[in-house]
Fold this protein.
Amino acid sequence: MSSKARYLFVQYVTVVRVPLAAVAAVLLHVAHPGSAAATAVVGLLILSELTDILDGLLARRLNVSSRFGSLFDPYCDSTSRLIIFFGLASAEICPLWLLLLLALRDISVAYIRIMCILSGKPVAARLSGKTKAWVQGLGAILLAAIFAWADLEPGMMRLTNFDVPAVGWALKAIILMIAGVTLWSLLDYFAAARSSPSPTGGATPPAA
């Protein structure tokens, strides 16, 4: 296999999670709790997360790591997860404010890093960003699993609704976990941008 073919193969592995997320979102919108379609969503989300692991491993194994890939991978991560959480919100498994928080974090961090680069003070990828990605991915799978296999009732996800069974509390805990880590990542990038050294002094932030 040529170097170009290896490179394109890795990019295909990266981008495939976007259509996987789109299919999952459509199924979430039309499926009923406990249906085969709802179960299929869980499988699609697991497959999507596996591609996120595989593309980096393949890029290094096939020696086709690139600057484009390092930018394209987080773009596909962000796009696919926003699509997935749109589907979850559409199915009333997570609140709309959580989707908005995810979008706000990703847009804000992208612009923070762009402005830092333009000012000559680049901010490297942070551990909080990688943690956020894993928590969002795992959280989406758990929320989809609850939709597929638990006995859900309308309004269980609302944080102000305390009259819910154990599955309702599990739903709230997952939502709060995702929201908390997402907010932490946003604040962490703000803090990193403020403390980023000027071009004339200090050290470059270490890569996460």
Observations:
- The radius of gyration is 19 Å.
- Residues 201-208 have pLDDT under 50 and may be disordered.
- The domain at 3-195 is CATH 1.20.120.1760 (Four Helix Bundle (Hemerythrin (Met), subunit A)).
- Residues 77 and 133 are 8 Å apart (CA to CA).
